[in-house]
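Narrative of accomplishments. A recurring question from our advisory board has been how the design workflow behaves on a single, concrete structure rather than in aggregate. To address it, we present the structure tokens for one chain from the evaluation set, followed by the sequence designed for it. No filtering or post-editing was applied between the two.
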């Protein structure tokens, strides 16, 4: 596969990642502090949208697997879905602040459902294209690496939202100008990605199973022991990261009193995480991945709580140092969990005699989205109970403390819970190796001692 085609395909990740990050990072703050919806209702909006996003993932996958098109079954969704996806992204940020709260809530839910649907029907086919466009093991890894770099760039640019918006006297106008620009480049990047892989995909669907048979596969997978453990870990971790990301704008605006500090904090966190991934990778070659995550998650929780409780107004440098430290520690969480799913697929393929990669990965993303949905509901309820008022000039002491706890304590608790649940996961390196050297008795013995 030519390098230009790899780069072209990978560019689509920019369009997907920048919108996903901005929604997770800024949408709830936008609803409470710009549109004027209560924190509780804003959390409900996020919950409804993300839950629908998660539940629609397997539906989109099944439809896409059964779809035939002369443009390519997966490529057609990316190519013709690019512009609707961009339009739905813009609609999220056009909710009038002068409407009544019930009407603003209805419009926000409708916009979120439209965006989530468009996101699902573009991102699922896009992600599934990798094994279609190349069968080379190393080439797949290389393409995934290029996508990761572009995704990181999208996060940093998305984090720059606060800097751009603060340059406008009208915050809502600045936000809408920014997202319109991002939407244009998102659509363009997805069209470029689709054009780069033109002719590389068969035009006919290769799946002949009925919807009933497909859903039966999805329903049977979660009943397996290690699937339940791993997905519980993913669910708890998604609550932690979702709450942390959504609370950053609140922390920067109301605790540090500097909305632009969120941009630099996110950038430092992202860069430090990326830089230290090779370090954690080397450690996984020596130590049990479950134990590494227990250590990193506990240290990450301690660092988050320390930053949340001790950083005061104007202490930007201390906040940046904390973001860098959390990035170094949480780099393990960005790397290790994704390595468990292929092992899970191989393990149950060996045990049961059949492989269901798409089912496992589809459910993995579904669980993640539902965890993010719960984090929005949890954050909104917590802020609302403590008296947070998004449009108020000055927040109460209890509301400020709620923001601190939402930034540090809530993510920290769920990170530790996730790591503790993972300790019951029995597919270790030794179990995996024993199973694939045909020593199933030894593998079972090792599982029992895990």
């Amino acid at each position: 596969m030519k390098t230009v085609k790899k780069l072209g395909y990978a560019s689509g990740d920019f369009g997907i990642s920048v919108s996903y990050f901005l929604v997770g990072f800024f949408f709830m703050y936008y609803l409470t502090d710009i549109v004027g919806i209560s924190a509780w209702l804003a959390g409900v909006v996020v919950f409804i949208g993300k839950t629908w996003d998660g539940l629609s993932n397997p539906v989109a996958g099944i439809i896409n697997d059964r779809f035939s098109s002369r443009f390519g079954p997966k490529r057609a969704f990316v190519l013709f879905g690019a512009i609707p996806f961009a339009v739905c992204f813009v609609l999220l940020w056009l909710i009038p602040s002068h409407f009544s709260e019930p009407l603003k809530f209805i419009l926000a839910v409708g916009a979120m459902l439209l965006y989530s649907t468009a996101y699902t029907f573009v991102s699922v086919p896009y992600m599934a294209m990798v094994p279609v466009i190349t069968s080379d093991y190393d080439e797949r890894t290389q393409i995934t690496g290029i996508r990761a770099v572009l995704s990181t760039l999208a996060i940093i640019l998305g984090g720059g939202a606060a800097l751009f918006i603060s340059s406008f006297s009208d915050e809502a106008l600045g936000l809408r100008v920014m997202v319109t620009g991002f939407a244009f480049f998102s659509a363009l990047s997805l069209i470029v990605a689709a054009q780069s892989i033109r002719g590389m995909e068969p035009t006919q669907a290769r799946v002949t199973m009925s919807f009933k048979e497909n859903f039966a596969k999805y329903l049977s997978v979660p009943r397996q022991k290690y699937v339940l453990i791993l997905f519980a870990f993913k669910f708890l971790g998604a609550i932690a990261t979702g709450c942390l990301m959504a609370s950053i704008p609140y922390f920067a605006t109301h605790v540090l009193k500097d909305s632009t500090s969120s941009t630099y904090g996110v950038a430092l966190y992202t860069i430090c995480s990326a830089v230290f991934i090779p370090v954690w990778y080397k450690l996984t070659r020596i130590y049990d991945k479950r134990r590494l995550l227990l250590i990193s998650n506990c240290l990450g929780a301690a660092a988050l709580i320390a930053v949340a409780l001790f950083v005061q107004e104007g202490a930007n440098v201390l906040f940046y140092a904390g973001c860098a430290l959390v990035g170094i520690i949480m780099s393990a969480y960005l790397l290790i969990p994704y390595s468990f799913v292929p092992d899970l697929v191989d393990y149950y393929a060996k045990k049961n005699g059949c492989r269901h990669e798409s089912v496992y990965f589809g459910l993995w993303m579904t669980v993640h989205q539902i965890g993010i949905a719960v984090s929005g509901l949890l954050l909104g309820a917590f802020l609302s109970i403590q008296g947070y008022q998004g449009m108020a000039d000055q927040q109460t002491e209890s509301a400020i403390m709620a923001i601190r706890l939402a930034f540090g304590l809530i993510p920290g608790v769920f990170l530790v819970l996730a790591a503790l649940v993972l300790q019951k996961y029995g597919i270790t390196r030794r179990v995996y190796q024993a199973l694939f050297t045909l020593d199933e008795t030894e593998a079972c013995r090792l599982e029992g001692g895990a």
